[in-house]
Amino acid sequence: MEYRLFKNLKYLVVTCIIYVISGCSSPSLPPATIHQSKTVDVNSYKYLIGAGDTVNIFVWRNPEVSGTFKVRPDGMITTSLVEDIPVSGKTPTELARTIEEILSKYLRDPVVTVTVNDFVGPFGEQIRVIGEAAQPQAVNYVQHMTLLDVMIQVGGLTEFADGNGAVLVRIENGKQKQYTILIEDLIKNGKISANVDVLPGDIIVIPETWF
Prior knowledge:
- By secondary structure, the protein is α+β, with helices and mostly antiparallel strands.
- Among the domains are: 54-117, wza like domain (wza like fold), CATH 3.30.1950.10; 126-206, Outer membrane lipoprotein wza fold like.
- 22% of the residues lie in helices and 22% in strands.
- It has four helices and ten strands.
- The strands form three sheets. The chain has a five-stranded mixed β-sheet, with no helix packed on it. A three-stranded antiparallel β-sheet has the order 2-1-5, with helices on one face. A two-stranded antiparallel sheet has the order 3-4.
- A hairpin with a 7-residue loop joins strand 3 and strand 4.
């Protein structure tokens, strides 16, 4: 109990210091842009390539321009014919069609197949869990992933989490929406009806309880 009171007092002191400092500092930076995922429901999910992925490009009858390429931090790859090909945010099929269009300048009727290794994906497609999770982190989305799956990935709640006060932030139709989620009911009380589908780009915020 004393530890929690000390922790809360420390949090209030730090918050007050930050508030005082911010009042004397330069104007704040604009908020980060949260991009809306192309996945609008659990059945429409398609994997999007991201920085850190490895893409295997096979050009039929043209092994000299085929190969395996690492997606750079800027979301591009470099091939033997073209230095900068934007790939981040595309599905493997979309990338194959893009490369066919590019290679058509050099080859006659190129046929391209793209496969992916590593499966990092764009940051905007990851599910981010912050606050009083045992292991706050960004989780790579897998089709039909649910809240329970995410909480298993992050190791559940901390001792001081307000699981039923958690919210899920999602961008819908270009607008940010918040939904109440009952994590404590789900993982501590076994209330399976509290399990919900999650989508790429969701942000789960788990606050600390004050009691």
